[in-house]
Amino acid sequence: MRLGLYVNLYADPADRPRLADAVEQVRLAEQAGFSWAVLGERHLHRPGYHEAVTTLAYLAAHTERIGLATAGLIAPVHHPVHLAETLAHVDVLSGGRLTAGFVLGYRPEEFTLYGARPEERVSRFEECLELLHRLWTEDEVTHHGRRHHLDGAFLSPRPVQAPRPRIWNGGRVPAALERTAWLCDGWTTSFNETDEELPKKVAAYRAAPRGPRSLGSEVIVCREGYAAATSQAARTALEDPLRALYDAYGDWKRTSADAARYAQPWEDIAARSVIGSTAECAERLARYEALGADGVILRIQPPGMPQADALRAIEAFGALTS
Q1: CATH label of the domain that carries residue 97
Q2: Which end of the chain is more exposed for a tag (fewer CB within 10 A), N or C?
Q3: Can you give the residue ranges of the Luciferase-like domain (predicted)?
Q4: Residue 321 has what pLDDT?
Q5: Which range of residues forms the domain containing residue 19?
Q6: Distances (CA, A) of 285 to 102, 139, 221, 272
Q7: Nearest to 303 by CA among 236, 225, 251, 240
């Protein structure tokens, strides 16, 4: 089972964002056999949040082998040419280690910040990904769509990977699964998707028609994760900082259909996570593999968790990859 480390890019109000901890974690994950370091995107977060694409470039300079992925960038708020160019350059700088993961977005204030409207997000998403495909693989692109117009556009340099970097997308509803199958190469689940929901959705995603540019149909399960000597030790390290993050999500996700899941009891959170003793975590990962997952992304360090606790969990999961 391939593992990804979801990197904590938040900052505590008393401590501006620092990338030293992220670099230390990602370098340890690389040594421990993780397949990806995975970054998310967030805006209008007053304590601070590192911008994802420039952070990918920074991590590329401090690592050698580990894949660099996003899960995900809010595609509808980005201009596709700028996005294609910057991501292509991350692939160049990293020697071909990029996986570009996207989401549709849900926060109205983030759309407003970028001059987009939430009701345009599907058309913006689809046009953005179409142009990413073309700009990464074609010598010259002319395009006249609903949102963007290009005449003779091209990228130089283009990505290192051939024919292009892999593309992931997140989403929960049937339309999102169909869109992902047609436009992308992998589906990233929600962190709060329950195990009971996953088999039906994996089957639906895999059964949906593939687009002509698709490179496959990976399933990447996103989960809260913490491995320790005992399940109680894992809960002790993770519960308080994760609860604080979920309390914040209750406000951030007020317009999202899954907002209520962040107020659930610990038992429900643990039931859809990879948290516990190393043996329990190994069993959980094996269950996802049997379900059809190609990889699991683990969010190990919520804001407020000490660096030492995060490093211990990364080492513990690394022992499961060998």
Answers
A1: 3.20.20.30
A2: C
A3: 17-294
A4: 84
A5: 2-321
A6: 24, 42, 10, 11
A7: 240
